[in-house]
Fold this sequence. Notes:
Layout: H1 5-8, H2 17-34, E1 37-48, E2 58-67, E3 71-80, E4 86-99
Antiparallel strand pairs: 1-4, 2-3, 3-4
Amino acid sequence: MNLEKKIHGNAHENAHGGALLSLADTAMGAGCAFFNKKVVTLNLQMTYFAPAVLGTEIYAKSTVLHNGNRTIGLEADIRERGSDKLIAKATGSFFVIGEWM
Length: 101
């Protein structure tokens, strides 16, 4: 995700935390889809470790922690591309409502 001032900027000249949370939610949703699970979010929590500087590129990587029949739990790391500096970590719980296929 390329961080642009007009789209992602906050009053502190960094990326808004909500933009980072959205990226993490999308990465965790993709992790659920990998296991063919259509889900809705039960809970999301984000911890921020460093500012996401506008003009840089960040990425999210999700990991499945629990893969149940009714719920699935994941975490996602958001890092700055190039330096791999940890920007934030999210955890989420998702309710399984069906299958994609």
